[in-house]
Amino acid sequence: MAKILLVEDDNLVRDMLVQMLQRAKHDVESATNGEEATEILKTSHPDIMVTDIIMPKKSGITLISEVKEKHPTMEIIAISGGGRLDPTGYLDLSESLGASVSFEKPVDKSALLMAIDLLLHSKKDKSSI
Predict the structure, then answer these.
(1) 44 phi and psi, to 5 degrees?
(2) 34 close to 62: Cβ distance less than 8 angstroms
(3) Nearest of 124, 66, 64 to residue 94 by alpha carbon
(4) Is residue 119 predicted with pLDDT exceeding 70?
(5) Residue 126: which pLDDT band, with cuts at 50, 70 and 90?
(6) What is the DSSP-derived secondary structure letter of residue 20?
(7) In this structure, which topology does domain 3-127 adopt according to CATH?
(8) Which of 71, 81, 95, 125 has its CA 20 to 30 A from that of 119?
(9) Which residues pair with 3 in a beta bridge?
(10) What is the pLDDT of residue 122?
(11) Residue 62 phi/psi, 5° resolution?
């Protein structure tokens, strides 16, 4: 089980992902944009952050940069539908800034859950060294 911060501005996508993650027995906290996520991270310490890229108030790209600076060991998964552009460019940029994994929307649920499990096991392996 992981403690996950989900950052997604689309209500339907956020609700669907929260339900899916909770069914997989993860502890999920959600934010509707990057600013809200930044406030949550002042008091909460999730294992993994799953963030959309195109959001109002603070983009996922900015959020990833800030989180990696303040919480360098936090695992980050980026998701994007791309807005007006192809999502590949945004996702490549998110990985260059520190996201461990990225997915195009609609997100393949089993692939997302597998990525979370792999990141958790990788984190445990690193902490036992």
Answers:
(1) -115, 150
(2) yes
(3) 64
(4) yes
(5) low
(6) H
(7) Rossmann fold (3.40.50)
(8) 81
(9) 27
(10) 86
(11) -65, -45
- What tokens appear for 127 in the block? 């902490």
Q: Which structure tokens are listed for 87?
A: 């999502």
Q: If you search the block for the tokens 């940029």, which residue do you land on?
A: 93
Q: Find, among 74, 73, 70, the residue nearest to 50 by Cα.
A: 74
Say what the pLDDT of residue 89 is.
83
Give the CA angle between residues 106, 54, 16 to the nearest 5°.
Answer: 40
What are the boundaries of each domain within the chain? 3-127
Distance CA 122, CA 34 (A): 26
pLDDT tens digits, one per residue of 14-48: 999 999 999 999 999 999 999 999 999 999 999 99
Residues in the chain, overall count? 129
For residues 72-86, give the mean pLDDT: 86
Matching residue, tokens 């980050």: 76
Which residues make Cβ contacts (< 8 Å) with residue 122, sequence separation at least 6? 75
Identity of residue 69: E
